[in-house]
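FIELD: query
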Amino acid sequence: MEVLDEDESMLHKEVEDEECQQQGMATEEDDCSNFHILVNAITGVHNFNTMRVTGCCKGKAINILIDTGSTHNFVDFQVARRLGCKLDATDPFPVAVTNGSRVYSTHTCKSFNWRMQGVDFVAEMMTLPLGGCDVVLGVQRLVTLGNINWNFRELKMEFHMNGRNISLKGKQPAAAKLVDIKGLRRILQKSGQMVPCCFHYKDRQQKEQGRLDTLLTEYADLFEEPKALPPRRGHDHGIIL
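FIELD: result
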């Protein structure tokens, strides 16, 4: 029988606690490594390997991000609730975002039905707080389509499904627009994200005019209009023609 003194016992306990903590972290990292989502789905910023399409679910327009950088299909939790989707609660599990952060999914939707450019679709979804879009179609959905002809320059996607040739056309990235306070409130109510900016307009012409006025005042004698002939010189420089 091995007898340990108090210091050795405390040391063993600290080592065991540290091992348990590391094991827990490793387990969470393993769980997180199975689920990935592109940061653009969270921020709404356009990316070259994604395509945005407007769809329809239960008579409501939804913003769909078709993304090769996300492993699974995701739907925004608040959007799913507003649409009245049947959600099944699950234990929270982490989803790794490509910027290094994590978000957690708490529900699944076994049969999410939507219509996209005249074609009906159904897929299993996991809920996430997206913000940058309403639905993300990841590799989980793309692998079921077989061969895909995808032109990212023209934002055109073609594939064969249910005996039909399907062609989807993506939306071009929208340019920045000015929005009033009412429009801003509507955006924030839809889980949008806001980056405050303060623009200061400088009138370059007015600034240059101010510098010119200072120069004219400082050398006023040089810029006066001549009122007589130039003074005589001690030596005249002749110009021979």
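FIELD: remark
Residues 12 and 215 are 81 Å apart (CA to CA).
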